[in-house]
Amino acid sequence: MRNALYAAIVGTLALLGVASRASTPDALSMPATTEIARLPMAAQAGISQALGRDDGAYHAVADDGHIRAENARHGLTARFSAAGVEVSSANERLTLALRAYGYGEALRPVAGAEPRAEANRVVYRRGALDEWYVNGPLGLEQGFTLDAPPAGRREGPLTLSLTVGGTLDAQLDAVNDGLAFASSSIRYQGLFAMDADGRDLPVWLELEGRTLALRVDDAGARYPLTIDPFVQQAYLKASNTDAGDNLGLSVAISGDTIVVGAPGEDSDATGVNGDQANNLATNAGAVYVFARTGGVWSQQAYLKASNTGAGDGFGSNVAVSGDTIVVAAPSEDSDAVGVNGDETNDSTPDAGAVYVFTRTGGVWSQEAYLKASNTDANDLFGFSVAISGDTVVVGTSREDSNAIGVNGDETNNFASNAGAAYVFTRAGGVWSQEAYLKASNTNAGDQFANSVAVSGDTVVVGAWGEDSNATGVNGNQADNSADISGAAYVFARIGGVWSQQAYLKGSNTEAGDFLGDFVAVSGDTVVVSATREKSSATGVNGDEADDSVFNAGAVYVFRQAGGVWSQEAYLKASNTGAGDEFGYTVAISGDTVVVGTASEDSDATGVNGNQTNNSADGAGAAYVFTRTGSTWSQKAYLKASNTGTGDQFGAGNIGVSGGTVVVGAFGEDSNATGVNGNQTNNLAENAGAAYVFGLPNQQHQCKNGGWQTFGVFKNQGDCVSFVSTGGKNPPANLP
Q1: Within this chain, do residues 487 and 364 fall inside the same structural domain, yes or no?
Q2: Is residue 735 part of a domain?
Q3: What is the distance between the alpha carbons of residues 385 and 392, in angstroms, rounded to a whole number?
Q4: Reading across the β-sheet that carries 139-146, which strands appear in turn?
Q5: Where does residue 217 rank: exposed (0-12), middle (13-18), buried (19+ CB within 10 A)?
Q6: Which structural domain, as residue segments, surrounds residue 604?
Q7: Bridge partners, 67 (sequence order)
Q8: How far apart (Å, rounded) are the C-alpha atoms in residues 665 and 245?
Q9: What is the pLDDT of residues 405-416, one digit of tens each?
Q10: What is the CATH number of the domain that holds 607?
Q11: What pTM, to 2 d.p., does this model score?
């Protein structure tokens, strides 16, 4: 098999006041900055290619000895000749020409080539090297495909060398991952690199005069490599958007399936794809399933409980694994116990229930109705849920028994709000309870199982109300001298038998930290948040010793080797602020961790925007961290494409699967419906939304397994965002 490199440079071409803006509704009546902020987000690159291919307006045509492609949406004209490409708008002009490639400074010139037009695609073919451009709604996308590594010795980084010309003077940005142009809003930016194992790789730009070099350090990397930014793929809304629905309070993703909960939805429908048009069951709740086909997201199903009831909060928490979805209704009221019991009465207020749905041939149906083995009023069974394959974990943070460990006595109520977790497994389509998990130091008020996570044979349970002053792994859990410091517990399954493997505390345990407020696990790595940790540190492994920033929040990464757990990293926001509650939600997939904040306040939009102001109270944000070996670093600062005060972007269940991130913003207010609707109004207060982001390489598979680098030129009004948002537990307006 050939080696393959996938490399991407994404830039934005922003020329204000061009004539094409007049086609935007109300464009001429708005100030330029407002107009830009209100333009809709571009579709992700794969959708852009497909739409451009099917729309003749984006097709490249022969024109007086060269090839021309118009992009009226972005006010761009591209002209292709043997000398390179020229991109122009109004009175500004940028030229790019690939001149050489190789390793380090040992570059060899590229062969000359005439451009060829294929619908909305223009290609320069130079033997093993193709240079290509694709025109579509996203903008003008640039790419290079190498069928084999450059010839010669690998001395220095992999390098592509281009000449930058035109009327604009280029300069590198502060971190050498983008270009800016003097007296212009043009930018060429967004570098990100990782290898086939998800290991982060160094990547940078170098500029000398008008020569631009893209450099990649691939030493020790396993191919294929990826050098990509996150791109917003979709803006998801309900098919029956309504104020107060809180869509995005919970989200989950598995492969090409996204699940979004709306616990405030009000229809009295039951089952799958019922009548969603009425509001006869206040806060009954609903769940929306979206599927991706050919890079395009669409709603696949509308899920309701089999016993829909007002106030149940169906969709307060969701989880998905392959073709199985788990939905919690923590305020459901039946007195049933176990699996598929009698769901018809409402005699046990807020006992809670969980529903399992499965998909066959694209069709969803309810497979099971799960209840606790010791159902009791106010337990909120389903306050947290998780799934991995045929294993489901359900948390009840208000369960009251004083049992400890695994499968203890669940029949008493001697420890109010101690909490419990229940493990269910499926065999042959039949679900049964496998274990009843309690803390090793059960105490009233610990809220054990306020968060749960599962990966294979490992379950992690958070207990933000736990009170010991222990630090690190397996410390002294016997005292209660650090009130509400919090803890997390790791359980392992061997031969179908569960046992506690580790007791996790932060490296800087303090009263009131709320460690365990959210947990996540992937393989041998556990992530635990402490949303009210107080240090002023920023970034990775900063000074954790002070308590000067109230409720700033922190996240702790633990890793096991040979069954022994240890803390690997201490993560903080890049813009740590009081009250932000960094870690209000966390997600992990392989070597990527995404962290949400409940109350981050900047008015930035998209990726890596200005995070220094606090002018949008409670807008929310998310942060992407990646691991190389055992070293973590922040890779992106994510905001919504339509950032708004109180939207709570990143305040719930963020989901990450492979290269795709989904985040809900349950306080978002637009009245849009479906996918990629109009997000510019605030006409449906707290309707909620979810944002999907991914790595463009998912849609741009390399030709013949070759190496690829690509970039995008586009109007900044539709600039690419790296965003994810979410919600987690029932909001205050639910029972």
Answers
A1: yes
A2: no
A3: 7
A4: 115-118, 121-126, 129-136, 139-146, 707-713, 5-8, 225-227, 193-194
A5: middle
A6: 231-671+688-694
A7: 62, 80
A8: 11
A9: 999 999 999 999
A10: 2.130.10.130
A11: 0.72
